[in-house]
UniProtKB/TrEMBL annotation:
<feature type="transmembrane region" description="Helical">
    <location>
        <begin position="6"/>
        <end position="35"/>
    </location>
</feature>
<dbReference type="Pfam" id="PF01925">
    <property type="entry name" value="TauE"/>
</dbReference>
<feature type="transmembrane region" description="Helical">
    <location>
        <begin position="249"/>
        <end position="266"/>
    </location>
</feature>
<dbReference type="InterPro" id="IPR002781">
    <property type="entry name" value="TM_pro_TauE-like"/>
</dbReference>
<comment type="similarity">
    <text>Belongs to the 4-toluene sulfonate uptake permease (TSUP) (TC 2.A.102) family.</text>
</comment>
<feature type="transmembrane region" description="Helical">
    <location>
        <begin position="190"/>
        <end position="211"/>
    </location>
</feature>
<keyword id="KW-1133">Transmembrane helix</keyword>
<feature type="transmembrane region" description="Helical">
    <location>
        <begin position="217"/>
        <end position="237"/>
    </location>
</feature>
<keyword id="KW-0472">Membrane</keyword>
<keyword id="KW-0812">Transmembrane</keyword>
<keyword id="KW-1003">Cell membrane</keyword>
<protein>
    <recommendedName>
        <fullName>Probable membrane transporter protein</fullName>
    </recommendedName>
</protein>
<dbReference type="InterPro" id="IPR051598">
    <property type="entry name" value="TSUP/Inactive_protease-like"/>
</dbReference>
<feature type="transmembrane region" description="Helical">
    <location>
        <begin position="107"/>
        <end position="130"/>
    </location>
</feature>
<feature type="transmembrane region" description="Helical">
    <location>
        <begin position="42"/>
        <end position="61"/>
    </location>
</feature>
<feature type="transmembrane region" description="Helical">
    <location>
        <begin position="150"/>
        <end position="183"/>
    </location>
</feature>
<feature type="transmembrane region" description="Helical">
    <location>
        <begin position="67"/>
        <end position="86"/>
    </location>
</feature>
Length: 268
């Protein structure tokens, strides 16, 4: 009972961070499911897709109402991404053997491999949140806009969909820079469009799981409700709290957790 309560409190905190910073909080969803609630890593990545998708959808709806979503860039990026994430959940995840490597020196299981890959993603996300990229972005904004590279944008959409499908994270820290530098979108529109893409990727990717495994809908909807409540609180708090500074501090938390997960899985 206590563990369940802590899990829902964690969902609330994840939502608040998402509401305050516009991204990043969802990367804690899988560790909460696996290490706090004891859910199997493969199932946890599927559950995470649903939570991330529902949470992002609330933000995306607000952005749509404000006219901040670029549908052209969304279409080019999201179509291959959605195909990749659905195919990964439906076919690739189930095709990976439970024991990948087994000999007298090493044992690598499917669950461990997924969590190690997730830890690497967490480290990459933490550096993205911690490092100050304002100068780089400002330099880009001063240059003359070039023609959008749709071919590269679509290829990176495919890659992002694969990553999202494997680890169940939204990938906003990957998508936003791509939309800024390849789709030539202003920062605010890139963030809004990213949230729209994440919602599509995550929810359609989750269908790949929903079609083949049994889902505890009562738990999943309850967890998602707390995350959404957190987002609404975070949006309200954002008027009084500096989201940029919070995101940098949160980046250090993600860094520490990524190192912990990597160490824990490698030492097992």
């Amino acid at each position: 009972m206590l563990i369940s309560i802590l899990g829902f409190i964690a969902a609330l905190i994840i939502g608040i961070v998402l509401g305050l910073t516009g991204g990043g909080g969802s990367i804690l969803t899988v560790p909460v499911f696996v290490y706090l609630l004891g859910i199997d890593p493969v199932l946890a990545t599927g559950y995470s897709l649903f939570v991330v998708g529902i949470s992002s959808a609330f933000g995306a709806i607000k952005n749509l109402q404000k006219g901040l979503v670029n549908f052209g860039a969304s279409l080019v990026f999201a179509v291959p991404a959605v195909i990749a994430v659905f195919s990964t959940r439906k076919f690739i995840i189930s095709a990976i053997p439970n024991v990948i490597i087994k000999n007298q020196h090493m044992l690598v299981t499917k669950d461990a491999a997924i969590m190690v890959f997730f830890a690497i993603l967490m480290l990459a996300a933490s550096f993205s949140m911690i490092l100050n990229n304002k100068r780089l972005v400002a330099r880009k904004m001063l240059t003359q806009p070039k023609k959008t590279n749709y071919l590269t944008l679509g290829a990176l959409g495919l890659f992002t969909g694969l990553v999202t499908g494997l680890v169940g994270a939204g990938g906003g820290f990957i998508i936003v820079p791509i939309l800024i530098f390849l789709a030539k979108l202003p920062i605010k529109k890139a963030a809004a469009t990213s949230l729209f893409i994440i919602a599509l990727n995550s929810l359609i990717g989750f269908l790949g799981d929903a079609l083949q495994i049994e889902i505890d809908w009562m738990f999943l909807l309850s967890f998602s409700a707390f995350a959404v409540l957190g987002i609404l609180l975070g949006i309200s708090f954002s008027k009084f709290i500096d989201g940029a500074k919070l995101k940098k501090g949160f980046g250090f938390l993600v860094l520490i957790m990524g190192i912990y997960i990597f160490y824990k899985e490698m030492m097992m």
